[in-house]
Amino acid sequence: MPLPKIIKDRVDLEVSPQLCVSLFPEDMGQPKIDIVHVKMTQLEGNISDLFLTPCEALELASALNQIVQFYLFNQEQYREEILKPREKIASQRVKKVRMRT
Asked: How many domains does the chain have?
């Protein structure tokens, strides 16, 4: 009995309004190989696209996992040095936006 036909239908996973991952996207000028398309939208609306082979996507996922583990390990230090100043800046932005409206 022969193997079933390989399905190569497009698959989209919208993780959040800022992140969408697609498998087998329509041709976007990329080589005709198995492709993973990662679309990242910044809050300002700027879009960044990554086109990866499955192996590259797996390596990226592994690297992200490792860096997040490192972040969680050092979370207290990050909270004091990075997150608190960012919260202050965000509060100032919110005040400016409220003053405009």
From this structure: 1
